[in-house]
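Lecture notes, continued. The same structure-token format from the folding unit now serves as the input rather than the output. Read the line below as a description of shape only.
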């Protein structure tokens, strides 16, 4: 399959220029420069606690931007309504709350507007298609809290797909997933990128980073270094927190 054509940098889905992020004026990362263009998958890699999640949260307003500028589709994040979708590590939705898988996916069609807008038949069709894409059409009426952890993660991805964003943000999407759910998510991320959606995901799974992303951003020591995935991952054995996993990158992953 031909590689998606690169869009001009001016059309970047996400751009960070000299960005510092943190919480309550405490900097976690400083001077981050990163561009995510349409159709590209970029992996954020680094040891636990390095700041990967903080960087993603800053894009969606859940962490403080202390310096520099972030733009989503050329606009400040708060003005880029609907341009980005976020899939967190653990969803804030109470597993005991009586909503079905279909209800959760339909949340991706909500838009922040001045007036209450009713959900249309077209919205329901888009949500149903998104749920089918993650292989859970038969679980549409199942209560979200009764699904397995992998199925819940797939529902959250479907919610983001239903939003039809230009930028997909995912925070450790593969943590603790069964093989089926992991394969579904990998396939859908590739499909999104092929259709022109930009994807930024954090992961500690270096083999998946290698297989999925053409570019990687290494978060280490409060700074970020971006480059071709192969080169960035080659530098990981010297980075704290990886050791044997980094050294084992050349082992072929079953089924990949």
């Amino acid at each position: 399959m031909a590689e998606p054509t690169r869009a001009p940098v001016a059309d970047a889905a996400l751009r960070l220029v000299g960005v510092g992020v943190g919480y309550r004026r405490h900097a976690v990362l400083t001077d981050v420069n990163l561009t995510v263009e349409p159709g590209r998958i970029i992996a954020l890699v680094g040891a636990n606690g390095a700041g990967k999640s903080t960087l993603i949260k800053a894009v969606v307003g859940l962490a403080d931007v202390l310096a520099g500028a972030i733009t989503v589709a050329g606009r400040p994040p708060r003005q880029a309504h609907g341009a980005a979708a976020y899939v967190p590590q653990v969803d804030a939705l109470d597993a005991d709350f009586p909503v079905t898988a279909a209800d959760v996916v339909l949340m991706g069609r909500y838009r922040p507007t001045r007036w209450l807008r009713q959900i249309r038949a077209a919205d329901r069709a888009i949500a149903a298609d998104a749920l089918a894409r993650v292989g859970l059409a038969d679980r549409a009426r199942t209560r979200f809290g009764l699904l397995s952890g992998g199925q819940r993660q797939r529902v959250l991805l479907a919610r983001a797909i239903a939003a039809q964003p230009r930028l997909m943000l995912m925070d450790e999407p593969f943590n603790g997933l069964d093989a089926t759910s992991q394969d579904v998510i990998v396939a859908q991320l590739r499909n999104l990128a092929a259709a022109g959606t930009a994807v930024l995901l954090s992961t500690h799974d270096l083999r998946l980073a290698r297989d999925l992303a053409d570019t990687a951003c290494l978060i280490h020591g409060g700074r970020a270094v971006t480059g071709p995935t192969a080169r960035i991952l080659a530098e990981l054995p010297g980075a704290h927190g990886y050791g044997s996993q980094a050294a084992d990158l050349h082992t072929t992953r079953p089924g990949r």
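Point for the exam: The chain has a mean pLDDT of 86.
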